[in-house]
Amino acid sequence: MFDKFREECGVFGIFGHNEASNMTYLGLYALQHRGQESAGIAASDGERVRVSRDMGYVADIFDSRTLGELPGTRAIGHVRYSTAGESKLTNAQPILIDCAHGQIALCHNGNLVNAKELREELVRQGSIFQSNSDTEVILHLYAKSKAGSVEDAIVDSVSQVQGAFSLVMLTKDRLIAVRDPHGFRPLALGRLDGAYVVCSETCAMDLIGATYERDVEPGEVIVISEGGVRSIKPYPPAPLAHCIFEHVYFARPDSYVFGKSVNEVRTELGRVLAREQPIAAEVVVPVPDSGVCAAMGYAEESGVPLRMGLIRNHYVGRTFIEPQSSIRHFGVRVKLNPVKSILAGQRVILVDDSIVRGTTSRKIVRMVRAAGAKEVHVRISCPPTISPCFYGVDTPRKADLIAATHTLDQIRDFIEADSVAYLSLEGLLSTVAPDRASYCTSCYTGRYPVEFPRDEASYLQLALKLDKEAVTN
Q: How far, CA to CA in Å, does 110 sit from each of 69, 103, 449?
């Protein structure tokens, strides 16, 4: 419903805990914001790997009965939003196979930019795919590997894929975590008493009482077994390309990603935005929930009081039935409602983390005006989004990104605000990446750190041809 980049996926794994599947359930619950289409858990009791997965939210899929059918002291889990492959049960993860190397279950956060070419070659060689997810490509490469050990087969298969991948894998007796050499997606390592935990964000560790130890390093393979933790670094080093949008929007504010507090980063982005783009007003209002941290920073720096002038309904399900009679701005109003006593007669600074197409921003501005606001000034805590992402984020093609096809004045007119201003790229980088070299900013610059095949655009439904035309024009 909201006009945002879609979260990608979340992964979780635990080794050496008597309630591994229960802990994984809780970990996925904390990572639910990263994917709401499907969820799954694989668990091993040392003899066999079992998997349970379904469409929907974590709490709707798992209960005491289903978790009881996943015995063992080691487990991995996944929450999914599809960025490559359709939204259907066959694409849900973990994906479990049994091959010459034994059983293995795989969870993947990211996107493989050469998956289509690899898949076509594997099919020519006789592979039969059960899904259209790019993740399954890794498992076919693993099954075909001539390597003599599980670890070597994983290294062999992963070395053939390109793009963004944070992986957790489970065999009967091992948990393996892998992060791509550029480090696009976060992956953290922690401890829970004698157990080891790996997960996309530290908020999952917080929920189960685990302690964060360090990030899985870019290009690192971690093998966890009864003998402890072993680190392998088999891949050539590559320039770091952490996804900067994790700090802007994706990650939960209570998480640490890429070694930084998301809450502190977003609050500082708001402070910088206030210094760069001040405006006279009586009240700062965040667009909940993603704009709250930046709005707090903006209010603190500007001296304009922060008020919760928009209230979000957190109990909206995946779908709802629209009434036959027309209700103005119905779709947005289901999730947000204005507080007239805060907005009426005021000059309002509306703070949000991003604008993608601009359609929801326009509805929110109209809603705030209808509540009596005298002026509405929109402030965005990141630079204009001008390019799609090919590394595990579901984004519109460039022709649908308002900042790629409209001037700032045109954006202001489209969303019907009195003014619109964005944080500068320099302001973003000075806060998140002072070294300027460790983050991927392709959504703001159009410069991609990993090349992708030309026809990959059709596979990802991102239309590169239209991107080039938009840039040329």
A: 29, 23, 14
pLDDT one-digit tens code per residue, 262-308: 999 999 999 999 999 999 999 999 999 889 999 999 999 999 999 99
Q: How far is Cα 252 from Cα 263, in angstroms, rounded to an integer?
A: 8
List, for residues 59-112, the tens digit of each pLDDT value.
Answer: 999 999 999 999 999 999 999 875 444 567 888 999 999 999 999 999 999 999
Residue 168 makes CB contacts below 8 A (sequence gap 6+) with: 11, 12, 13, 76, 106, 107, 175, 176, 177, 187, 198
The answer to whether the CB of 109 falls within 8 A of the CB of 246 is no
- Residue pLDDT, tens place only, 4-39: 665 579 999 999 999 999 999 999 999 999 998 999
Q: Quick: pLDDT tens for 182-195.
A: 999 999 999 999 99
Residue 45's nearest CA partner among 66, 78, 20, 12 is: 20
- DSSP state letter for 306: B
Give me the residues paired with residue 45 across strands.
none
User: Residues 166-184: pLDDT tens digits?
Assistant: 999 999 999 999 999 999 9
Residue 456 confidence (pLDDT) above 60: no
d(C-alpha 419, C-alpha 407), whole Å: 13
Question: In the block, which residue shows the tokens 């694989």?
Answer: 42
Q: Encoding tokens for residue 14?
A: 């635990």
Which is catalytic among the residues 9, 203, 243, 382? 9
22: enclosing H helix or E strand: helix 20-30
Cβ atoms of 298 and 379 within 8 Å: the answer is yes
- Please write the tens of the pLDDT for every residue from 378-417: 999 999 999 888 887 766 678 889 999 999 999 999 999 9
- In the residue annotation, 293 being an active-site residue is answered as no
Alpha-carbon separation of residue 23 from 206, 212, 233, 236, 465 (angstroms): 12, 15, 28, 34, 45
What DSSP designation does 305 have? P
What domains can be seen in the chain, in order of their start residue? 9-238 (3.60.20.10), 264-314+329-437+454-472 (3.40.50.2020)
Instruction: Residue 138: name the closest of 176, 195, 173, 172 by CA.
Output: 176
Are the CB atoms for 439 and 240 separated by under 8 Å?
A: yes
Taking the C-alpha atoms of residue 145 and residue 147, their distance in angstroms, rounded to an integer, is 5
Q: Which residues pair with 283 in a beta bridge?
A: 348
**CA-to-CA dists, residue 171 to 33, 72, 166, 338, angstroms:** 27, 12, 17, 51
Q: Report which of 338, 292, 290, 286 is spatially closest to residue 311, judged by C-alpha positions.
A: 338
Mean pLDDT for the stretch of residues 326-333:
62
Within 433-463, where are the H helices?
442-445, 456-460
Euclidean distance between CA atoms 398 and 153, whole angstroms: 38
